[in-house]
Amino acid sequence: MSIQSEVDQVYLYRGSPDFQRDPQAGQISRDERARWGKDPKIAGHHEPMLYGWGRETPKESGVDMRLGLDLVKAAESRAFEKIVLFCGDSDLAPSAQDVMKTTTPLEHEAWADGQDKPGNALTEICRRKFFRVRTHLQR
To answer: What is the pTM of this model?
Structure first.
């Protein structure tokens, strides 16, 4: 027996490179936004990347915070039958735990580490808290 389901909305969270400081990354980001913007089911959230003194590469800042806040808000709204979180960042563990206090089910998806074992702390927290966890092998 197969269960039919449909994705209603995809919320995508990314850092946004500064086009002046990194034109190549800026162009890739613009191209991604344009491509994703064509799909009405994709809602992109882009936070400016930080370029610090002496830092070789920029840092995403605020992306995890925005995702965590929106995750809890979506669960509390009861607007979705289920929320699927595809992320491995352990910074989202407190938000995932708050979602568990709501009536909205949360499913965590993660990439496997190449040995069929998820390689991130968020997955381990989800397993301990009885989330449904699936891993995907990178090929």
So the answer is: 0.74
Q: What is the CATH number of the domain that holds 68?
A: 3.40.50.1100
Cα(102)–Cα(125) distance, integer angstroms: 17
In a domain, 55, yes or no: no
Domain-located, residue 41: yes
Q: Assess contact for 49 and 13: CB atoms under 8 A.
A: no
Residue whose pair of structure tokens reads 């089911």 in the numeric block? 41
> Does any domain span residue 2?
no
33-36: long-range contacts at Cβ-Cβ below 8 A with a sequence spacing of 24 or more?
36/12
Beta-strand runs (E) in 3-128? 10-16, 42-48, 83-86, 106-111
* Tens of pLDDT, residues 61-98: 788 889 999 999 999 999 988 888 887 777 888 888 89
Give CA–CA dist 5/3, Å, rounded. Answer: 6
